[in-house]
Amino acid sequence: MKLSRATLPNLPPVVRQPAYDPASVTIGIVHLGIGAFHRAHQAAFTDAVLADDLSWGICGASLRSPDTRDALKPQDGLYTLAVRDGGGEELSVIGSVVELLCAPDDPEALLARMADPKTRIVSLTITEKGYCHNPATGTLDEAHPDIVHDLQNPETPKTAIGFIAEALDRRRRAGVEAFTLLSCDNLPANGHVLKRVVSRFAELRDGELARYVADVATPSTMIDRIVPATTAADRASIAAALAMTDAWPVMTEPFKQWVIEDDFPLGRPSWEKAGAVFVDDVSVFELMKLRLLNGSHSTLAYLGYLAGTETVAEAMALPGMAELIDGLMVDEASPTLPGLPGFDLAAYRRDLVQRFRNPALRHRTWQIAMDGSQKLPQRLLNTIRDRIAANAPYARLALGVAAWMRYARGLDEAGQAIDVRDPLSARIAAATQPLKDAATIVDAYLGFSEVFGEDLPRNADFRGQVVDALETLLAKGSAATVAAFR
Ligand code: CS2
User: Is 137 near ligand 1, meaning CB less than 6 Å away?
Assistant: First the structure.
C-alpha cells in the first residue's frame, strides 16, 4: 500500500493526520524549490493552520529535478514528517502541498500558476546560488549563463528570477495585483536581496515591468529547522511505522523557528497560530542565526569532514570541537550582534549545541559543506569584517575559513578526491590543487573576489591568520588542530 488520500484511513493512529480534508484545499501559495527543507518547515506551518482557511494550499515547484514531483504526485502531495530526537519520533502526514510541478518539463504550467490571481504568495527556498548573485556584493550576476538565457527567452525561463519576472509581467499586463515574494533562504536581509536581483532583472527587461516590480512586497524572514537529507534507511523505517510506503518522507528535529516581517498586501495564512513570530525588522534575528548556527555549522562541516566524521553529531564529539564551537559563538560571533532586548542569547547558544548533538539525526557534514563559496560571506566573512573593525581577535573564524579552503581544493587528508559540490568547484580546483604551501593556496583563493570582496584580500592580518590556520591544518590534520582547543 502507498500513502495517498485514499489510504489515509488505513494509517495507524500514532500518525497525526491533516485536520482538514486535503481534497478541499485550493492553491494560494506557489513555492519555488520544493525540497525537504520547505516540506519540514513552511509547509508544516501551513499545514498546522490550513483548517482556518483552505485557500492557502501550496503548489510546490522544482526548478531542476523531477524527483520530488515524481515521488509525491502519485501520493496526492502527501508525505510524512518525522520529528526525531533522543527521546523518540513523532510522525505526521502533511497535506498542505496539493500540486507538484517540475519547471523544466512544463515552464508554462508554472508561469500560469504564478500568474493566477488566486496565487497571493510566491515563496522560495532555492539555496544561495539560486539568486544568481555575486555572494560578496548581493547584486545580480548579469553574466550568469542562466540569467543571460532568461533575458533572451522570457517565456521559457530557467531561473527563479526569470520565472518571477515573467509571472509578474503577466499579472501587470492583466491588471492583477502582484503576489508577495517571500524568500526563505539563508541570506542576510533575504527579502532585500531578492528585491534587488528581481528589480535589476526587470530593469534589463523593460521599464514598465521595473516600475511594477518596485512596489512588490518582499518581506524578509529568518527560518530555522535542521533537515538532513532523507536516506534509504529512513524510508524503510517510515514504511514500517506507517504500514505503507511513502516515496519521500522528511526527517527533522523538534526545534523550529520562523520570524517574518508582516508585509503581505494580499493576505497570508495565520502562521502565528503555529508559532511563527511577526516582527517589523528581521535583520537582527537573521544575523544571529547566520553567524551562530550557520557559521558553526560550516566550521563543523569542513573540519569534521576532513577529520573523517560523517555527521554533525560525530563532528561535535571530536576532542576539542565543543570548545572550539563554544569559543567561536561566545567570544567571536556574539559580540558582533546588535542587541536583542528580552532575548536570551546564552540559552539560544545552549540549544544550538544540543541541536548539533541530536543523536537521532544523521546530518552529514558533506551536505552542509556544499556551496561554501556562496555561504562563507554571510556565515564567516562578514563576522570577521566586524571583528577586524573592532580590532578584536577572530582565530576560530579564520580556522573555519581555512578549513573551507582545505576542503574545497577537492583533496582530503589522505590525498583522495572529495566530491565537492559548489558552483566554483572547477575553478577552485584548477587554481589551488597544483599548489602545495599554505600561503600560495590562500593567495589563490583570495583572487575570488565574488567570495572575499575587494577588502579582505588586501587585509594583511586576515591573510596572515588564514595562512597560519591552513598551515596547521596541512601539517597536523584537522583532528589534531581541533584537539588543540581542548
Ligand atoms: C546548513 C543549513 O546545509 C547547511 O548549510 O547550515 O541548512 C541549516 O541546517 C539550516 O539553516 C538550519 O535552519
Answer: no
Q: Could you tell me the CA-to-CA distances from 252 to 18, 105, 356, 419 in Å, in that order? A: 18, 30, 12, 25
Taking CA atoms only, the protein residue closest to ligand 1 atom 10 is 226
316-338 tens-digit pLDDT: 999 999 999 999 999 999 999 99
Contacts of residue 79, defined as CB under 8 A and 6 or more positions apart, other chains included, come to 3, 39, 72, 93, 94, 97, 246, 248, 249, 250
Whole-number Å distance between alpha carbons of 239 and 345: 39
DSSP string, 84-143: EETTEEEEEEE--EEEEEETTT-HHHHHHHHHSTT--EEEE--TGGGG-B-TTT--B-TT
With 0-12 / 13-18 / 19 or more C-beta atoms within 10 angstroms meaning exposed / middle / buried, residue 279 is: middle
Cα separation values, 399 from 185, 236, 373, 431, Å: 25, 39, 16, 21
Ligand 1 centroid vs 368 CA: distance in angstroms? Answer: 7
Q: Going by CA atoms, what residue is nearest to atom 8 of ligand 1?
A: 226
385-416: pLDDT as tens digits: 999 999 999 999 999 999 999 999 999 999 99
CA separation for the pair 368, 420 (Å, rounded): 11
Which atom of ligand 1 is closest in space to residue 227's alpha carbon? 9
Its pTM stands at 0.97
**Cell numbers for 255:** 526545534
Give per-residue pLDDT as tens, 134-165.
999 999 999 999 999 999 999 999 999 999 99
Q: What is the DSSP letter of 281?
A: -
